[in-house]
Amino acid sequence: MSGLLNISVGPFKRAQGSIMLPGSKSISNRALLLAALSTGTTTLKNLLDADDTQVMRSALRQLGLNVTDQPNQVCVVEGCGGKFPAQEADLFMGNAGTAMRPLTAALAMQGGNYRLSGVARMHERPIRDLVDGLRQVGAKIDYELQEGYPPIKISAADIQIKDVVKVRGDVSSQFLTALLMALPLVAIEPVRIEVIGELISRPYIDITLKLMARFGVNVACPDRQSFIIPAKNSDAVYKSPGQLSVEGDASSASYFLALGAIGGGPVRVLGVGKDSIQGDVAFADALALMGANINAGEDWIEVSGVKNANGKLNGITMDCTEIPDAAMTLAVAALFAEGPTRLNNIASWRVKETDRIAAMAKELNKIGASVEEGADYIIVQAPASQGDWKSPSEGIDTYDDHRMAMCFSLAAFGSNALKINDPNCVAKTFPTYFAEFAKVVS
């Protein structure tokens, strides 16, 4: 599919089959960094092989680590015991927030000189809240172009934690994740982090805490806004667990679960289930609220059509604070629902790979949906009748955003074939998405 300007999909009537999910992006990039910072060698299994994780692996190699890719999504990382061999590096981070933010914090603890940059869109994605948090402990970080945004330069500095570290939580949970993962390296005494305001995407913080525990650092959470990092008892803070198997990506699962509802199913996703540490498995609960038939096991989830008498999903109003990525799939699933669907508390969409609220509203309108967008919400109403579905000749634009492309593949279950532009943008997290999609639709 490399280099395709667009791909034509649909119209489809049925979806059924099973899909083995690629590894979770969120778990993969956290695990790569923790393995790098550990003592010992870590074998990571089912590691996501996509643009975002290649960015992290490339950066770690530039920092002097041995990171060896093996067949069948296995990666072996030789840890550095908390101190990167390279004390100077110029790192290109693409548009990978899960690599850029945690690596920035880890590098600020190293006493070296580093520069981090990315694609043009990365330079529009805020990083101020993280930098402000790091400056509280003495980190020296400068903005190269625009205040509050990458590219950034990190200079050698004396890190001293004298007080509670405070960080905002209402723009991105990745800022807190970055501090949680980096500050154990310098925690001579216990370190308290307090979140100012609302903490969005809390399940992603839970992923961070569970993975840190696997690498030997247990963070206490006396309340929902506070985190206490234990004092280190040696320079080697993180310790390799030897092996770690990465769960299937729950955000990627959402497209196939929605297909199982829209296309009758059964569609089963393998690699993620009711025991998942990922918050996006809650997407299945949201789909159930819309009337989908859901079953789940330890490491699988299956959807078999809908239980509503009219055979359609029903519109819902939902607080999406905890599942912002998977909530995008709900916006397109709303095309197949009776009544409006309102998704609230999605302000973080506006600072992702693109302004996802604006992009979603524009592309849904092209298909014939009625859409209302606000600063932190979107309301979607399906086309009034089959005849009101449109197939825009210019195609569905994806804005170099993998989730836009994957979400709009679901719209091929409408009345018309649909052209999706730049389908290769899915390489960011799921390079084989359209091939897997083709296996289950007819």
Can you put this structure into words, describing what you see?
Helices cover 28% and strands 24% of the residues. It has helices at residues 25-37, 51-62, 97-108, 128-135, 174-182, 202-214, 250-262, 283-289, 324-333, 356-367, 402-409, 433-440; strands at residues 6-9, 15-20, 41-45, 67-70, 74-78, 88-92, 113-117, 140-143, 152-155, 165-168, 191-196, 220-223, 226-229, 243-245, 264-270, 292-296, 300-306, 313-314, 317-319, 337-338, 341-344, 370-373, 377-381, 418-421. α1 (25-37) packs parallel to α2 (51-62), α1 runs parallel beside α3 and α5 (174-182) runs parallel beside α6 (202-214). It has 442 residues and is α/β, with parallel strands linked by helices. The model has no long low-confidence stretch (mean pLDDT 96). The strands form 7 sheets. It has a 4-stranded mixed beta sheet with strand order 2-15-17-16, with helices on one face. It contains 12 helices and 24 strands.
Compile the SSE list and pairings.
Layout: E1 6-9, E2 15-20, H1 25-37, E3 41-45, H2 51-62, E4 67-70, E5 74-78, E6 88-92, H3 97-108, E7 113-117, H4 128-135, E8 140-143, E9 152-155, E10 165-168, H5 174-182, E11 191-196, H6 202-214, E12 220-223, E13 226-229, E14 243-245, H7 250-262, E15 264-270, H8 283-289, E16 292-296, E17 300-306, E18 313-314, E19 317-319, H9 324-333, E20 337-338, E21 341-344, H10 356-367, E22 370-373, E23 377-381, H11 402-409, E24 418-421, H12 433-440
Parallel strand pairs: 2-15, 3-14, 6-7, 10-11, 18-20, 19-21
Antiparallel strand pairs: 1-24, 3-5, 4-5, 7-9, 8-9, 11-13, 12-13, 15-17, 16-17, 21-23, 22-23
Helix pairs in contact: 1-2, 1-3, 1-6, 2-3, 3-5, 4-5, 5-6, 7-9, 9-11
